[in-house]
Amino acid sequence: MGVHERDLTSFITDIGDAGRHMDFAVEGVRCAGCMRKLEEGVGKMPGVTRVRLNFTNRRLAVEWRDGALDPAGIIDKVEALGYQARPFDAASAETAEAKEASDLLRRLAVAAFAAMNIMLLSVSVWWGNASDITPETRDLFHLISALIALPTLAYSGQPFYLSAFRAIRKRSVNMDVPIAIGITLAVAMSLFQTFQHAEHAYFDSAVMLIFFLLTGRYLEQNMRRRTRAQAVNLASLRADSARRIRPDGSVVEVPVSAIDPGDRVAVAAGERIAVDGVVASGTSEVDCSMVTGETMPMKVEAGDMVYAGTLNLSGPLTVTVTAAAKGMLIDEVQKLLDNAYAAKTGRVALADKAASLYAPLVHTAAALTFLGWLLAGAGWEQSLVIAIAVLIITCPCALGLAIPAVQVVSSGAMFRAGLLLNAGDAIERLAEVDTVVFDKTGTLTLPSPLADAAMLTERAKGIAGHLARASRHPLAASLQALAAGPAPEGLRETPGGGVSGTLDGVEVRLGSADFCGVSVAARQAAEAGHAGDSLVWLRTGDEIAAIPVRQHMRPDAAETVAALRARGLVIEILSGDRAPAVAEIASALGVDDWQAGVTPQAKIARIEALKAEGRRVLMVGDGLNDAPALAAAHVSLSPVTAAHISQAAADGVFLGNALRPVVEAHALARKARGLMGGNLWLAVIYNTLAVPIAIAGFVTPLIAALAMSGSSVLVTLNALRARRA
Amino acid sequence: MNILLILIPVALLLGLIGLAAFLWSMKSGQFDDLDGAALRVLEDDDLPDESRQEKRPGDE
Fold first, then answer.
1. CA–CA separation, A386 vs A185, rounded Å?
2. Residue A511 — left, alpha, or beta (φ > 0 → left; ψ -120 to 50 → alpha)?
3. Which ranges constitute the DSSP H helices of A196-297?
4. Sign of the CA dihedral with A581 first, then A452, A267, and A302 last
5. Catalytic amino acids of A?
6. How far is CA A563 from CA A109, A594, A617, in A?
7. What local confidence, expressed as pLDDT, does residue A231 receive?
8. Where are the domains of chain B?
9. Chain B residues closer than 8 Å to A110 by CB
10. Given B8, B39, B45, which is nearest A55 (Cβ)?
11. Is the pLDDT of residue A112 over 90?
């Protein structure tokens, strides 16, 4: 980059006093040394007033005096230091989440303060009750506790009250309903007891409950935010910019979001097209594998439609934009996506399922306790106190932590295995899978095709390598390493054709069949011999050789498929590519169930058919044509190279060239699911032990405090086991 | 037991100071980058050169 201007104004914020602020997503930072190198390097640029690298989410914040430097210079500087930087739009959806996180943390801090101070007073009362506390002192302590507890519950308890209220209004029950009822009754009864000069008050239980539950909620939120931040970083690192041609003919690089329909955009050979549009001038070949799964390049010329996400292979193009970032995508795909999402909302997460069983049970038990004591001859006051004690002791403290704690630990383990999850309950869904459907192009195979020069002579390989070095064609990259022996002279690249030069007075050419002057008969013969591959040709004098270009399988694809099968999963392949290309991959992997030439609609139909058979499908795919199927499947994963829309539709994204994270994710999810179930059982066991004591009327605040904190710690410790599959 | 009338407010006040300190540190962004803070503590290049030399043991 560098020859043309970059327009970054949409990323810059004005911080007053002629100061400007901009955020960058940075790749490659690993240690304290990297951090210092970056901050010092950028900080020494003239005009920079503040540099701070956030190591947690790998963002670099830079502030400078307006006009003192060109922000594009910062990117070049970071690149010169050996890292990658991309402008990052800080004003995205993330800020709302960050706000929610700091809000939860503040409520948690208040609850912690209150819990500690009330416990200080409560322990004194418990101790005093056993020895010589005077009733006046006890009342004073209870009163102070009330003064701390009431504002704390009003502030820190808000998230639970609001969520319970929303659930009730929708005529459903979630875990927050019993929580809200439990703490409200506990506080109301304690207030009443205080004014009755009673021995026991439950302010400490109520506040401690809020503290534990907020901890669970904060952890859960933090996990989601962290993986989301990584995913957004990855997205912005994937160069979402386009080069707009101004009316005066100059070219400026702008973020895709700043492109409007009607703009003209320049696309160089080897570049990914960032917008949907019509070719205004130029001829080239376009690799549509990301959009349709088809691996054979398609020829385009003026007047042809090109889609965002496709790769421009051979010649420069000028594209008139028909739909930019906002309206991008073929409408059809978007429509299919919407339908798929609408069909999916029926599932109830494990935690809510547990809540809907739990709440009625607990409330019935409390009501029965009240009636039972009343019938047994206790006064209504004493009966009510015991019934409320039942509610307090059953308040789902452990239950509230049981699932989020496992989710946090498990998604942390997946993160280390190279997998980012978008949805919290994706872990549960992943564990239930029994069928895996793979897309072929870009999922089972590596995202970019490679030229396979294995059958050339050593000399030809060397020449092809030299010629490839002069080309910007993406396919040339894999041949460049072969360059050896004498170098041809007068190298020249013909857009849409290939590279030519002369070696020892003989003309050498590398490129398309036409460019190399291959006869029709020779071409047909070669194509018959390389079914399913597109061909690149090498001509040295009169000798002609065909170089097949093929999709290479991900290095561990066979291993991964075998491992998934060993885990008892059924494997299928659904590809938009031609049958011979799919058949080759399928047989190499030993997969019998495969379909080729499948449209996005047909992919959904197949997934729906599997669903109708009662199967739970994990869809792994990357293309635009996979997006609706990803959304329709029970759970879905995408490689990091996938089209944007597919990543958004998928429940998780895996990093790197390996397919292995899919297996690890499944193993970790199964383990996590088991632990979630185990934790729920722990909560059930705790209740079956504690409830009879409460019903019998033996629960004191001391017992409640011990039982609640004990069960919460137990459940959290159990969740830590989710670190390993 | 009159000492309680002093000790309890003192205890609460200390607690409140802790809470206020936490809220302030949160607001000033000290919890934004916990991983980075863990690494930054190892750096000593924020000290001016002469002060680093002065702090060498046995100089006094």
1. 12
2. left
3. 203-237, 289-292
4. negative
5. 439
6. 46, 18, 17
7. 65
8. 3-41
9. 19
10. B39
11. yes
Share the mean pLDDT of chain A: 81
Full set of structural domains in chain A with CATH = 1-90 (3.30.70.100), 96-228+347-396+678-723 (no CATH), 241-324 (2.70.150.10), 408-446+554-670 (3.40.50.1000), 450-550 (3.40.1110.10)
Q: What is the DSSP string of A47-100?
A: TEEEEEEETTTTEEEEEEETTSS-HHHHHHHHHHTT-EEEEE-TTSTHHHHHHH
Best mutation target, A53, A55, A125, to test chain B (most B CBs within 10 A) = A55
Q: Which pLDDT does position A293 carry in this prediction?
A: 66
Q: Are A28 and A34 in contact (CB under 8 A)?
A: yes
pLDDT of amino acid B54? 46
Residues of B in contact with A134 (CB under 8 A): 1
pLDDT at A348: 61
- Report chain B residues whose CB lies below 8 A from the CB of A35: 36, 39-40
Q: Are A663 and A560 a contacting pair, CB within 8 Å? A: yes
**Which whole number is the average pLDDT over B35-54?**
68
- Our CA angle for A350, A352, A356, nearest 5°, is 120
Phi, psi of A14 (to 5 degrees): -90, 125
* Closest in B26, B36, B43 to A54, CB measured: B36
Give B55 to chain A, closest Cα distance, Å: 23
pLDDT tens digits for A295-304? 677 888 888 8
Q: How far is B52 from chain A (nearest CA, A)?
A: 18
Among candidates A435, A438, A419, which has minimal Cα distance to A651? A419
Token pair in block for residue A698: 């033996």
Tokens of A508: 């050498």
Highest mean pLDDT among A101-115, A318-332, A388-402: A101-115
Residue A713, token pair as written in the block: 């710690």
Mutation for testing the A interface, residue in B43, B45, B47 having most A CBs under 10 Å = B43
Cβ-based neighbour number of residue A306 at 10 Å: 23
Q: How many CB atoms lie within 10 A of CB A634?
A: 22
| Option in B1, B11, B35 nearest A137 (CB) | B1
